[in-house]
Design a protein that fits this description.
3 helices; CAP/MinC_C; 2 domains; Pectate Lyase C-like; 15 strands; 6-stranded mixed β-sheet; single chain; globular; Alpha-Beta Plaits; about 30% strand; Probable septum site-determining protein MinC; about 260 residues; mainly beta
Length: about 260
């Protein structure tokens, strides 16, 4: 009597599903305070329905990074924070670098624990067995949005996953946003936010730099801090520097 061997080789392959490895591009939210109601209010003011950039996110998954929160703080009720994220069209999915004693409560809130090193720039992706992987969103050079008309006050242009080239003036009250670089071959008098999804290599270029606000990867400077005389109203570039372990904007003249 012959006996069929048992094991995976004797079983038919499933036809209704496949299991594959995957990478999930996540937005990382670096939290610097455990006062969740205040954090929620700030998020809503910036990205809520009545905020400054209400359409900035499109149901993007987000990992909560607690590495900036004071050690020894109590977690408390994070409901306000999670609700604010969802109202801003973000999907809270995972957490990392949480203070001692927070893990169980965050898991109970429906979040997944992610590796602390996940998503650090210029590092290879985590090992396949990790449940969540975060990919730094680098902007491919060939993808470019070109605008050849002036951008009026109240208008917002967003180059999602691309560089933005503007051939006319960006007026006060206007807003230009790009996941990559921003080039303005005219006066820049409104708001400009490059590297919007965390690309720290992004830059802003303008032939006449007079902005209300400039930002790269979330590090910003407003017109309340006047620009130095060698760049104000002149051709200049803005880039991000991490020297000394602290991110800051560098504004430099464009040389001929």
């Amino acid at each position: 009597m012959s006996v069929k061997p048992k094991g995976p080789s004797s079983r038919p392959s499933p036809v209704n599903f496949e299991i594959k490895s995957a990478q999930l591009p996540l937005v990382a939210l670096l939290l610097k305070s455990s006062r969740w109601e205040e954090v929620a209010a700030d998020l809503t003011k910036q990205f809520g329905a009545e905020g400054e950039s209400p359409d900035f996110f499109e149901e993007d998954p987000v990992v909560l990074d607690f590495s900036g929160v004071e050690r020894g703080a109590e977690l408390g009720d994070v409901t306000a924070l999670l609700q604010a994220l969802r109202q801003c069209h973000l999907l809270p999915l995972a957490f990392r670098a949480e203070p001692d004693g927070w893990t169980a409560q965050l898991l109970e809130a429906g979040l997944v624990q992610a590796p602390v090193e996940m998503g650090k720039a210029h590092r290879p992706p985590p090992a396949p067995e990790q449940r969540v992987q975060e990919v730094v969103r680098e902007v491919p050079a060939p993808q470019t949005m070109v605008i050849d008309k002036p951008i009026r006050s109240g208008q917002k242009i967003y180059a999602r996953g691309a560089d933005l080239v503007v051939l006319a003036m960006v007026n006060q009250g206007a807003e230009v946003v790009a996941d990559g670089n921003i080039h303005v071959y005219a006066p820049l008098r409104g708001k400009a936010m490059a590297g919007a999804r965390g690309n720290t290599s992004a830059r802003i270029f303008s032939l006449c730099l007079e902005p209300e606000l400039i930002s790269i990867a979330g590090v910003y400077r407003t017109s309340e801090s006047p620009l130095p005389g060698d760049v104000a109203g002149k051709p200049a570039q803005v880039r991000l520097s991490s020297e000394g372990g602290q991110d800051k904007l560098l504004i430099e003249p464009l040389k001929n």
